[in-house]
Design goal:
Length: 306
């Protein structure tokens, strides 16, 4: 099977305006509507996409959940994958070697909020790869050491730091996320809590990872880069594509570049937002938020399904 994306390469995307926070290097491809395959900004990314289209049966596609399949909302419990994204996953999963969702959420939460039990064959890696769900079966390790201590001490740590009203803790079972999105000044609230949370993480053997108006305490050794490389496996994938939107996705984008350095084609796709700065320069393609991701996945499925 051969799919030639060349006709699209002629499109001029230079008039796509910058969005605040995206950095100077990449522009959102706003043409990623249904059926339109966007063109990665880098030669390596174009090669990665071409390799995926050329040999989809050995390709790995992994996507983050929040901000990538599901729009960011004030209450994370209300986040849901866009129906268009679920539809695209249903079309795409049978056409590629491995279709995966890779999230910091518990795997079962992503399955529920993403309606992923409606996507036969999809693999869901939760807790940054510590959990694996596939075909209704969940494999999960015991909770990390130190987390119970951190959970017990966290309320006092927040009180001592005079955490502003609106600060709240999301217990992810294997991680504790401290959100400031609902505070009057979310960024200032996050800054106020940064040092105390780093200290608590250090004292309990956890890592404090920043994200979109959140700092998450989680076990070391779990990150999306490690998880992506494990998913890619030792034997050759035709291509490894990863889509994400946040700082926690950085290790996965880095893994794509590292795999490419070993001769493994691949591409990194950013679900662009005004909230996260700098990521756009680390990827091959920026699409316009979860709608853009759904459009991209749907376009790939449409090309492969022809
Ligand atoms: Mg995300």
């Amino acid at each position: 099977m051969s799919h030639d994306p060349a006709p699209h390469d002629m499109r001029d995307t230079s008039d796509n305006g910058p969005r605040s926070g995206l950095g100077a290097g990449r522009r959102i491809d706003r043409d990623a509507g249904p059926g339109r395959l966007p063109v990665p900004a880098t030669a390596e990314g174009r090669a990665g996409l071409a390799a995926l289209l050329e040999d989809p049966g050995r390709a790995l596609i992994a996507v983050d959940f929040d901000g990538t399949l599901a729009p960011i909302v004030p209450d994370p419990a209300q986040a849901r994958a866009l129906p268009a994204a679920v539809a695209a996953l249903r079309s795409l999963t049978p056409l590629v070697g491995t279709m995966a969702v890779l999230t910091g959420r518990p795997a079962l939460t992503a399955v529920e909020y993403g309606s992923l039990d409606q996507v036969p064959g999809i693999v869901v890696l939760g807790h940054y790869g510590r959990q694996r769900w596939h075909d209704g079966e969940l494999v999960t390790p015991p909770p990390p050491e130190g987390l119970a201590v951190a959970r017990e001490r966290l309320p006092a740590v927040l009180a001592d730091a005079a955490a502003p009203d609106g600060t709240w803790v999301e217990d992810k079972t294997d991680a504790l996320a401290v959100h400031t999105r609902r505070a009057a000044d979310p960024a200032a609230a996050l800054e106020r809590l940064r040092a105390p949370l780093l200290r608590l993480a250090a004292e309990t053997g956890l890592r404090a990872e920043p994200g979109r108006l959140v700092i998450e305490l989680r076990p070391p050794g779990a990150d999306k880069g490690i998880a992506l490389v494990e998913l890619a496996g030792a034997d050759g994938r035709s291509s490894v594509m990863f889509c994400g939107d946040d700082l926690g996705d950085r290790p996965a984008f880095s893994a794509v570049r590292q795999l490419r350095a070993t001769g493994q084609p691949g591409l990194g796709v950013c679900s662009g937002s005004a909230e996260v700065a700098g990521l756009a320069d680390e990827v091959d393609l920026v699409v316009d938020g979860p709608e853009g991701v759904a459009g991209l996945l749907g376009a790939i499925a449409a090309v492969l399904g022809r």
